[in-house]
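Handoff note, outgoing to incoming analyst
You'll be picking up this chain. Sequence as last confirmed:
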Amino acid sequence: MSLAERLGLAIFALTVGVLLALGLGVREAWRVAEERSFEAAFTQALVPLGDQLAGEITQLPELVRPLCQDDPLLDSALVGLVSDDLAARRLPISLRVPKLAKALNLTELTVLTSSGEILGSTSPGRVGQKSAELVTRVAKAPPTAKLEGEGKNLTISAACVKRDEQRTKLWVGVLATRNLDAVLSRIGKSSGVELSLEAPPLSKERLQRTLSLGEKTGISITAARSRRALLSTVEQLDLTVLLIGSATLASALLITVLLSRGLAKPVRALAEQAQRVIHGDPQPVVATGARELVEAAEAFNRAIADLVALRKRLAVTERIAARREIARRVAHEIKNPLLPIRASVETLRRLRARQDPAFDEYFDEATRTVLDEVARISNIVSEFTRFARLPAPQPAAFDVEEAVRAVVQLHGSSGAPLYLRADSVPELVADKDQVVQVVTNLVQNAQQALADRPGGRVEVRLTREQDKLVLAVTDNGPGIAPEMRGRLFEPYATTKAEGTGLGLAIVERIVVEHGGEITAGDAPGGGASFVVKLPLSGPTLLPEAPRESAFEP
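Most recent structure output, in case you need it:
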């Protein structure tokens, strides 16, 4: 994860955390305040509501009593009853009773005589009927309201009687009833409160309280108010907080992106320059921005300068060490042909001194031996000279596939057949002549291993592995001898009757000086496989070839 991404993620996480804490805190504080305000308003509304309900119950007799005292309707009915002249009065009475019940908010109103005849009622079907039960209820009604029934059928009733002054057994009475559930519904609607005789199950969607209507009534009711308005307001607040938070988050994200880009841009530029240095362009890096970046760039430049100097010294030291090792080996190799040369010369001198007749015959044999050994010495010195004079790489971009294909075509008819398999690879920054030398040595080594082997074949393959070029040379020959596995790239290490054993040593030296690596192993189907990996961007930390030592072979 890049610095810009980390910085952006940190600021984003911090912004989200602050917004969540602030938003939730504000929401919770506002919700608690609204809940308290809602509950306080509800509680305050219940005080007059309870008084009103108690009044509806206890004041019913006071509404009914004036009807019996001076209402023309009952006066007319009583006069008709006493004078036995009710026929003409029944219709007006029956028509006026429903209107009167509606005006007094009564559920049921009944006007009847002492004989039980119903003169008027809110139930038209009962007019003209007689009811002894109603006579009893009216005649024995208490002066206060009476509760009758249960549950939703609970009613409040009150009654009064208007008697004739001479004939007291004759009277006209009124029975008024109110259904308590209807009263609760009417008052509740006007107050925005749901009133019920039975307590509903508790729910988060409403707030409810129990009201006692006083000792006179002995009734307790449940008052409830829906909290949907409160919940809707909270939802609206949530939406507002979400919108504000989203807008703030988007703004913070934009600022974060701009800020992280501004802060990370000089770091990214410095990293790109460092990458170019690592891939073979050791130029001083230039940093802009914060003082710490400038100091880091200066420290990096000093480190690169030290590494370049160290690499140059190391390259020169390696070359000198390699030449010394080769010189030691050359001296060892030259001793072997010197012995037969010395023996041949000494024998010739002895035969010449004795005037031996065999001198002429031995002379031809001895001179041939001397010439063969001298040729061998000359070959050793030539190979050593070629190895020792191998120049430092002079890298330049070139088409590596074309160069390898040319080597394959050149050596394809001089030994075991060669096959090239090349993927699409970019140009390689390297010393072209030395890369061609590597391919040539590996191909010749494989063809020599397949000499006089029917069905032999050599495959050369070019592929890319990330930022490296991979060159693989594989044959189906006898493979690598076990005793040579640890000495394969040592100078003069060989099992061949011909050759000096410098071919693979030269290959390894070229590959190493190009910043690459070479490995050898067994091929999957038998034979040997050599794999060379070279950086596509060329040798690193060497802007120019190291200064050669003054020694020349």
